[in-house]
Amino acid sequence: MKIAAINIEGNGTFAQDAPAIADAVKASGAEIVLLPGNSRVKRSAAAAAAKAGAEIDTNVVDLDLTGEKVTAKRWVYRQRIFTAFSRAASLEHPWVIVTDPSLFGELCAKAAAEAQPFTAAASAATRTVISGEENAVTGGESTIRPDAKLLFVAGAGWTKKQADGALHFDEAAATITGFLAKSGASLGSSKSLVDMPEAAAAFTFMSHMNQVGQTGATPRHPKGLSTCCHGEEPHVVGWRFVNERRAVNLDANCGWAQGKADVVYVADAFAVMKKVNELLG
Ligand SMILES: Cc1cc2nc3c(=O)[nH]c(=O)nc-3n(C[C@H](O)[C@H](O)[C@H](O)COP(=O)(O)OP(=O)(O)OC[C@H]3O[C@@H](n4cnc5c(N)ncnc54)[C@H](O)[C@@H]3O)c2cc1C
């Protein structure tokens, strides 16, 4: 396993650096390429890796080298979890590891990789050539509607066993999409719901892009309606630009009831939203 290091410093444009770094990665003849994570590298390295057919990981703070196996270490989830991971790297699909800039020298030494200087090829094209257009929305209608008056937020409760002791994924999905179609509301979600693999099959209209909160989006809508969502602080911080807030929750002591919503309906959201959909016609 060959590990190369390229010392990229100074300034450069994305248009020139992305192809030049891709060329340098390929020309290194190495399975793993280390780069220092300064602003120039951070701007262009991801695109360069894609052009070079490489995988890339940024913010790596340490490496473990055991025989042929290289393990990278980095913090995730806002510095709460320290992870160690590895990737299969080959000459056709190299692994680009972007380190913290201050650790670049130390990690190069650890990997016994002498950092090579980088020279950006000035010949890179600076004009984009459009080869065609493709609708960004694939697999159905977009549920993220920034101009909507209402943000409708679905929480993990939609996937929990209900009073009859059964799961109601399909009914939940139909109720939510039915309401979105009738009301034109934008769809938000809690982290718990978008992280749930078992929900993914039924909730195809929802992705991590819908997540509202500390590690999600902070949408701006005049009104918000939260359903089957507990109202935990890391979620509710994403509501800070939503003015009028209402929530439907079975639990009278949920987070929304503790000063986070203007109105809390202590009720079954399945029944409430079914009735709302009927009233909307
Ligand atoms: C560092 C950090 C960052 C985080 N960032 C985010 C973030 O960005 N966004 C985010 O959402 N979360 C985030 N979280 C997670 C957050 O703390 C909560 O765990 C999460 O929001 C809970 O999701 P939930 O309310 O959908 O699910 P749960 O906590 O499981 O709540 C489900 C709710 O549904 C109710 N319910 C069940 N059935 C019904 C029914 N029929 N009718 C009405 N109500 C019903 C239940 O009473 C319950 O209150 C973060 C956590 C950490 C530690």
Q: How helical, in percent, are the residues?
A: 25-40%
Largest sheet: 5 strands, parallel
Count of alpha/pi helices: 8
**How many runs of DSSP E, i.e. beta strands?**
13
Bound molecules: flavin-adenine dinucleotide
Q: What is the first-to-last residue Cα distance?
A: 64 Å
Spatial strand arrangement across the major sheet? 3-7-2-1-8
Question: In percent terms, what proportion of residues is strand?
Answer: 15-25%
Which runs of at least 5 residues are low in confidence (pLDDT < 50)?
Answer: none
Return the average pLDDT rounded to an integer: 93
Name the helix and strand elements from N-terminus to C-terminus, one letter apiece.
Answer: EHEHEEEEEHEEHEHHEHEEH
Total discrete domains: 2
Indicate the CATH class of the largest domain. Answer: Alpha Beta
Query: What overall geometry do the principal axes of the alpha carbons give?
Result: elongated
What is the third-level CATH name, the topology of the largest domain?
Answer: Rossmann fold
Radius of gyration: 24 Å
| CATH homologous superfamily descriptor of the largest domain | TPP-binding domain
**Structural class of the helices, strands and pairings?**
alpha/beta
In the CATH classification, which architecture of the largest domain applies?
3-Layer(aba) Sandwich
